Structure formats: structure tokens, C-alpha cells
Amino acid sequence: MELRQLRYFVVLAEELHFRRAAERLFISTPTLSQQIKVLERELGGPLLIRAPRVELTPAGAVLLRSGKTVLRAMDEAVRQTRRAAVSGAPVLRLGLLNGVPPWLPTRIGSLLTAALPGARMVLTGGTTADQVRFLDDDEVDLALVRTPVDLPERFAQRAVAREELGVLMSQRHPLAGEALLDPVELSGQELILFARESAAGLHDALLRALADHGARVRLSASAMGHAQMLAVLPARPDVIGLSSSRADGLPGLVWRPLRGAPLVVTYAVAWRAAVRDPAVAALIAALTADLSAE
């Protein structure tokens, strides 16, 4: 049994509803269902009655009680170990968003050093959905996310940076010769986008913005992260992707802005509103105040 699977089960047992539990965990419902089945196979029997409504079996009730104890103990062990490892030195555990502008974590590190000399930063990478889970599990103090993102009320967030998105494509794409693209020219084009479950709010917002400006794209069945897209697009002149101008000039690729309909991605820092550590609270205040002034 993995701790991740145990955490999934505990949340599902609390919600007794697959969709609500999946939303709380920031994973898809099929992923949650599959992981619970794996757990049941591992433990040798059903933990849930799934119809007509979700209920715990006697074995599931036992695992819920024990599982909560295990998770609490693990979280406390992690916190105590981290405190001991840094010998009292202030630490900011930063959730580093995949594909974030390189200057942003560098700036956060500089602000951290200025606010608390001797402090250090520990980084944990992942998608927006990953970062929200890290915050909820107290694995990071501050996380970078892409908005819009639906955060629980126990979290706070503040925008810190923005980037314009344009169309990224193979140099051999029929539209590659144009310096500026009209959104309607994208109609019918196959668009490779990241998996919705990694940042549902941004995924939906981008498709909606494209449609509102006349770009009736076809969402590709292939979903992938930005790094994978950079590797795929040069050999696929029949598809397009979205990217900031940071990708402009990469081998085999061209980047083109959209006429009259710039797509903007906003980066935000998010944190648990009830911060227990005074040092972390002071750091968050200094970091968010400075970055929000950009």
C-alpha cells in the first residue's frame, strides 16, 4: 500500500462520493476509482459498497480509522524531520510549477534571502494540480500555480506574473509563413494541450477564449506537458500548440502571436491561509507584497 493510495481512500471515505472526493484531491474520477480498486486488491477485499450509494464496508471502516492515524503520524514525522534537518534555519518550501518563467523562482529566492538572511529554499516540482495537493498535504509552504484555479477557501492566492501565449508549430506548418495569425485561421486546426486534470481551470479558459475569438480548434486526443510538446511539434506539421514567446526560435519550431486576441496566462502564489509558522508567515507577506507590485 502506498501513502498516496491511503490518502485517496481516506478522502473518499470522508466524502462518500467519487466525484467530490476526486475534486478535493485534484485528480480525475477514473483515476480515483482505479487507485481504490488497486488498494482493494492489495488488501484482499472490498472497502466500499458502490451502489446504490457509496458506503464503507466493515473492512473500509477499519481502514478509515487506522488510515487517519497513519497519515497524521506521517505528516507530523515529516514536519519534525524537516525542522531537525535545517537546525533552526528558516526554510521556505516552495512548490515549483512546471514550465514557470525562469526569472520567477530566482526572484523569489532573492526576496527570501533579503527578508531572512541565512534562510534557504526547498523546491518541489509539479503541475498546478500537484501544487494544490502539496499545499493541502502540508508538503510546501508556498506554491506557484497557473490561474484560473479553483482553490478551497482554506487557501489564499495572489497573482505575481503574466505571460502572453501564442501559437507554436512546426516550421513546415501551412501557417508558419505568417508573422501574425488571425484567430479564425486556427479553425479546424488540431490543438495539442496539456491534460485537463493537471490544470482544469486554465485548460477550460484557454479553449473558451479561443472559441470566443473565432478559433474553433479541434482538441487533440494527445495530451502532454510543454516539454513533450516541444519534442513532438517539429515532426507534426498538422498540429499546433500554445506557448509563450520563450519557445520562439527553438529548432524546427516557430511561434506566432494572435491578432487582436492575445491569450494571457497568469501565475499566482498560493498558500494555506492559516499559516502556523510565524517565520513562514513573514516570508509569505514579504514575497507576495513585492512580487504583486511587478
TrEMBL record:
One of its GO terms (molecular function) is DNA-binding transcription factor activity. The keyword DNA-binding applies. InterPro entries: LysR_HTH_N, LysR_subst-bd, WH-like_DNA-bd_sf, WH_DNA-bd_sf. The keyword tRNA processing does not apply. Gene3D superfamilies: Periplasmic binding protein-like II, Winged helix-like DNA-binding domain superfamily/Winged helix DNA-binding domain. Coiled coil: none annotated. CDD domains: PBP2_LTTR_aromatics_like. Signal peptide: none annotated. Belongs to the LysR transcriptional regulatory family. This is LysR family transcriptional regulator.
